[in-house]
Hints:
- This protein is α/β, with parallel strands linked by helices.
- It folds into 2 domains: about 30-55 and about 80-235, Rossmann fold, CATH 3.40.50.300; about 240-320, CATH 2.40.50.140.
- The chain has helices spanning about 45-55, 95-105, 110-125, 140-150, 170-185, 195-205, 220-225, 230-235, and strands at about 5-15, 20-30, 35-40, 60-65, 70, 80-85, 155-160, 190-195, 205-210, 215-220, 240-245, 250, 260, 270-280, 285-290, 295-300, 300, 310-315, 320.
- The strands form 4 sheets. A 6-stranded mixed beta sheet has the order 6-7-8-3-9-10, with helices on both faces. Strands 16-15-14-18-13-17 form a 6-stranded mixed beta sheet, with no helix packed on it. A 4-stranded antiparallel beta sheet has the order 2-1-4-5, covered by helices on one side.
- It is elongated.
Amino acid sequence: MTKPVIIAIRGLSRAFGEVRAVNAVDLDIFEGEFITLLGPSGSGKTTVLRMIAGFEKPDSGTILLGGKDVSQLPPYDRDVNTVFQDYALFPHMNVISNIEYGLRVKGVDKSDRRARAMQALQQVRLEGYESRKPAQLSGGQRQRVALARALVNRPSVLLLDEPLGALDLKLREQMQIELKELQRAVGITFIFVTHDQEEALTMSDRIVVFNHGRIEQIGTPREIYDNPQSSFVSEFVGQTNKIEIEGKKINVRPEFIVVSKSTSYGNRSVQGVLRDAIFVGATTRYLVDSSLGNTIISTNPREAIAIGETVTLSWDKEKEFLIQ
Ligand code: ADP
Ligand code: MG
């Protein structure tokens, strides 16, 4: 059932002066999966990726790629390719020359490299754009060229460091879907870096949550969202209410809390007063000053409620998670 491990990372650490950028990281990455390194800025994601690529040397620890220790090998001796956020295309070369570049350096002959470049171009749906220069392309198209340029080498692993960061929201959401579909089609292992939790939830087979150079949690999007193992994860991925009740510290997602005028809709209920209702498009966030002394947010109203009215907040205990 479990897929073979393509990358095995053990005890990986890297410091820059006093900063422990990556701190004792252990991680197995499976063949053909879409895995995302998620964490706030400065949590060590890029440094992990750069060590996998070979642009950065670990202080300690090992990286096995296909069973072979590559920790000390230069980038060109590793069967991985990187797509950078700024695309790093050659501005004076047209699209097809940009894509072929790596093959030319490797000495692949002309007809072979043209055929492979055309195939990569098709994979990213850019047929017909062969002779355009990067400046004549949109941001999304440039991103695709950068992808094709990496895919043409047929690496066993593709590393993507915030590749959608420069795109506006609409295009970004479209590219998230396309990239995920492309990954499925080519079957290459993708290691994707983002600080955007929604992006991570949308795209990934598994998510690795980073905080201060360490792994906080590894799991499927569902596991991470439904069962965060630390308050850091519960707050970084999705939104959560921190509530102290019956001497216990618990977390509940706003969508699991019903706000109503009096009836309770669960085996846990708390009284409060509706302070504000904030419309945010698909949902409305109900801010309730609770009798526990804090503000509790619900996105799940059962009836129309006016600001200032007394309300009951209720939820099922099964939806709570404990935070140590
Ligand atoms: P992320 O990609 O999650 O934002 P990085 O891996 O880029 O995080 O950085 C992790 C930490 O290491 C940060 O505190 C960053 O400032 C530091 N760092 C990264 N690269 C260097 C470098 N070349 N020199 C000094 N500090 C660095
Ligand atoms: Mg980074």
